[in-house]
Structures are given as structure tokens and as C-alpha cells.
DNA sequence: CACGCTGTTGTGAGCGCTAACAATCAACCT
DNA sequence: AGGTTGATTGTTAGCGCTCACAACAGCGTG
């Protein structure tokens, strides 16, 4: 294996053909599992391939077939647990289907960034893109961009005619809220995520619906930005309300729109001397790995990110290969994880 | 099959050439910013490109230049905060340099998975790979794989002759340990990460060195697996030791090898009625976004993931473009973030 | 004016592969 | 036997691009 020159080119199909004593076309047939090749020939070729360490040149292949077998993923905020997990799911599913996946992470979706990302991917000839862009404005921008390939959204809502996959956020919120009401709470307060986010809207909607179904007038919604800090601030406000006790609606249960904010709420309550769940029950959303170790362990809603990834890729590939035409929208079921933070206790 | 319009092929360089009234070669020159093109001609071509919505075919380009301008990333455990953040940094840096980045996430690095990942990327003709494989066995396996392209490791240590970038884990551990000793603690206990991990080893080494430098015999090391649960277990053991009080080495300060385990330790201490930092000070490593909202806010070590990503890509590109030959190893400086969990209090 | 130079443009070949078609041969039928 | 079939293999022509080189203009120089 002495490499005298660095420039030794990798073997080509012609090299293999020569080595096996057949034509390059036969080599091609073996590689693409064409049925009409004699077993003996096939073996010759396979052996030659192995001897030379041959590997098909994907660029040449792409050039002639006009298929790059490459998918793009555009994601915002990839360091967060949710997007990161979805990414993993996407990537695995795509690899199984024989696609290469290329990711573009945006810090936070400025409109220009999105366009650049699409451009970047387009210039590499991706055949389709999955966009994890959970803000309404992004989905809007994406729809208007009119990309030259199919686009599937994750958590992109279904108001526009882009196909997509989402967790049933509303159902998740309903489950939490119902769980809290069932535990005997008179009402449930809510710390929502930022306005523009579709997940945020759906969770708030689910919460509101359940309250209204039970004839309860929903209390004022507090709003955060998903960060622990914003949760902390909301928690301080809630703590104030809980202690004041003169308002018509007592604060004994809070549904926080994600686990990180819930962490902040818990801290604020603790600092104010309010016991959880004794005086105020708290629930979150996402089930991040830390949630089980929060003080106290957090009741939350788990998302099956792997399933979301698999379904998105499935949908995208269907579009690419022309098996789907319309803007289908799939929902994945969430799962309620009950932990100590909403456990009914002996205290009032 | 009634898609008459679906089959319109994207415009080629020849189309642009015809539109602009020049040869395809001139178009190519404009596209690659060749200096010897008359300004007027250049404008003609640019206009034609715009009119037709032309885009260079990357496959054809790759075929003739033998450069795919694609990089691979192999990462284990991408849903964790650290790897996910590094990934973002890598991806941005690569895009800036005009490379496409394709990620392969492995659940947890079985040897076969690694080989498959390299194969997958190789079959797409990546020009180099960044591997975020922080376990010694992975790096070993990677070195033995002898990939047909340069490989740069992140947190891969420098004992093998693979170039790489790492945070100066040992320095980080030293900073924490010194900080705790300076606060007056007689000794510092340590909850380490799993054995095979290089980060784990380096953090333990840094801690041990500082103790020895100060003439303190390091207490027994507890070991976890990075998860909050394992930290919780270690915390229970430490709580037992702290309360027993008959051992020669008092438990008043603990350096936990990552924040998630520290969360578990904190919970165990709290449940046993031990106050933090009053009775036992606790420090972590990573500075995950939640750390600031732990009970109490956690002293920890912050890593500059963006810098790590940028440097890895820089190193890799240098190797690809032949500007670097030897297995250089870069270190990134950590930053100590001091919070309440190690704040000296009035109690002894 | 012949010569070389530089700047600008065009021509032709070929990267490594697949798709379409042609060629060959054995087997089978009437 | 002659023709038809089907399986197997080879031949040829590009895919869209870049590279090497040729061609030609305009210019200054001896």
C-alpha cells in the first residue's frame, strides 16, 4: 500500500471493468442490482471492486441521473433540546432511505437568513428540505420563498399549504390542564411562550379550551420567551398573586409552556417560600432530560421526536418521488408524564 | 404523466451563453470571478443569469474539479447541549467557507456505527470529517479506520496522531477546584463522568492535580454516567458521608463533572436536608442554560462551543487544502462562572 | 513593419457515470 | 431448419461543467 504519489486517483468504473474483464456497463449493472447479470459475472465484478477498493463517484452519478439524493434541513435554535432531538430523528430516517442530509442552523430566523439558507441548499441541489421553523413568520416567509423543491415543515402549523408534521400540541396542553383540574384545582394559570410561535399558540389554545369546557373563565395569560429567566419573572408575579390571596382566582396550579420556563417558575416560588406542589402545582412541556430532577420532579408532556423525524422524512420523500401531491399534515401524539410537581398532597 | 411543464430542465450554462450572446466558457469565467472579462461582457452575462434564474450544477462541477466541497460531521449524542452547540458552531463555520456540511448522528458509538458513518459519508465524497466522539474507544476506532480523507476530532485528546480541537478541560477542572479551595474548603470531592470518556479523564486529572499541589490527598472518586440520575445516586452517597462525619475527610465541597449530574447531586443533598452551599458547596461543568436556575444557581465552567466549531473547521480545511500536514492540536480556554452554589456563607 | 505582449474570447476534450440501444447467444417453438 | 424469444453483454452518446489551449484584437517597441 505504498502511495508513491499523492495524486493517485481513485479507481473508476472503467478500472474495475478492466480488472474483471467485462465492460463498464456490466459493472454498473452489478452495482445497481440489475437482475440480468450472470451469477459468475457478478462475482467477478464484486471481487474486482473489492480488490481495487472501488467506490461509485456520486457526482458523476448525480450528473447523469439528475438526482443528488441529498436533503436539506433548516433549523432554528438547534442547541435546544427539542430541535436537536428532531434533527437526530430526521437524520437517521434520511440515512435509512439512502439520502444524505445537510443541516443549516440559523441562530434566530431573520427573514434574510432563511432565504440564504434555502439558497445555500439549492445551490447544492438538494431535492427537498425539512424546515424546523416553529415561528409563524418563518413559515410565512418560507411559503412565500417558493423554493424550487418540496418543503416539509416541522411544527409549522397547517394554515398554509405546506405539508408538515407536528406534535399535537393542543392535545398535550389539554392533557396537562385536565390532569390539573382532575386533581381538584379550581383553575389553572398559564405561562405561555412567545407570541409568534405556533407551538406557543397551540398550547395556549389547548389550555383555554379545557378551562372553557369546564365553565371556568381562563385567568390572565403570562408570557415568557422560553428561557428560564422569563419563567422566573413570571413565577415571581405568580408568587405575588398566590400570596395576595384577594384575587377572585386563586393560584394553586400553573401550566408552563415549556420545561425551562417551568424551572424558573419553580425557583421563584421556592424563593418566595411557596411549596410545590403543596401550595402551587406546576407542570411543563417537553420532558427535557433534566425535568425528572427538578425540585420537585416536573410533570410534563413528552414528544416523540424520533417519530416526528421519521414522518417528516417520509412525507418529504413521498413528495420528491412524486407519490404525494397535496399538502398533507400529520400529527404525532404526545404523552403526559406525571411526576411530583403536580402530585395532590394532604395540604389544602 | 400529464406533467408537461414538470419536465422543464433547469437552465444550463449553454442556455445562459446563448442568452447573453457569448460562449459557455465566458459564462463560467464570470461565475468564477475570473479577472479577464470585460466589464460590459460580465454585465451581459450577469443579466442573462438573472433572467433565466440560472444556478450552477454542483454535480457537474464536482465531477470535473474533483472537489465536492462537502464536509461530514460524525457526532454521538447530539441531543445533549454540548454536542448540539458544537454542531451549530461547526455548521456555521463551514458554510462561511463555502462548504456543505452533512451530519451523521450516532445514538451511542458502537464500533460498527462509526464505520458505517464513515462509509456513508465517504460514498458521498466528503472531503473531510469532523468527529465529535468524546470516548477514547471511538477515537481509537476512528484512527484505525484510516479514512480516505482528513479527520479532525473534537474533544478527542491528542494521544493519537489525529489533529483536533478541545476545550482545555483540565484547566477548567483546575479553576473549579482552586476556586473551592480558595473558599476555605479543606478538600474537594469529585463526581466523575464515565471511565472511557476523555473529557471525564481530563476533568478528574485537573481536580487531582490541584489537590496534590496543595498537599491534599484526593478523596475517593465517585463515578456517574453524565445523567442526572447517576448524579442523584452519587449525591445520596455523598450525603451519607457528609452526615456520618466520622470519616477523616469532611464532605463540604463537591466538583461534579457536568451540570446534569450536579443537578442530581443537588437534589439528593436537598432531600437529605443538607443545605447548599451552606453545608456542602457544589460546582458543575458545561454551563447548560438551565444551570443558572438550579436550586441554587450552579457554579460551573463555560465552554465556547462556537470557537471550538470554528477552529475545527479551520483545521480541517487547512488539511484538505494541503496547508497543514501534521496532527496539530488546538486548545480552547474555558471560563469559570461563579454562582450561588459555591458562595461562601456565614455558616462554617 | 515585424514582433511580442497582454487582455479577451472561443473551441474541444473529457471528468465518471447511466440510459438507450445494438449485438450476441442459447433455448425454444412450429 | 428457420424464426422468435429472452437473457446477457457491449457500444455509444451525452449529463453540465472546467481546463488547456487556440485565436484574435490592440498596443508598444526596435
Automatic annotation (TrEMBL), chains A, B:
Q: Please give the SUPFAM superfamilies that the UniProt record associates with this protein.
A: lambda repressor-like DNA-binding domains, Periplasmic binding protein-like I
Q: Among its keywords, does the record have DNA-binding?
A: yes
Domain annotation HTH lacI-type: ranges: 11-65
List the signal peptide residues: none
| The protein's name | LacI family transcriptional regulator
Keywords on record: DNA-binding, Transcription, Transcription regulation
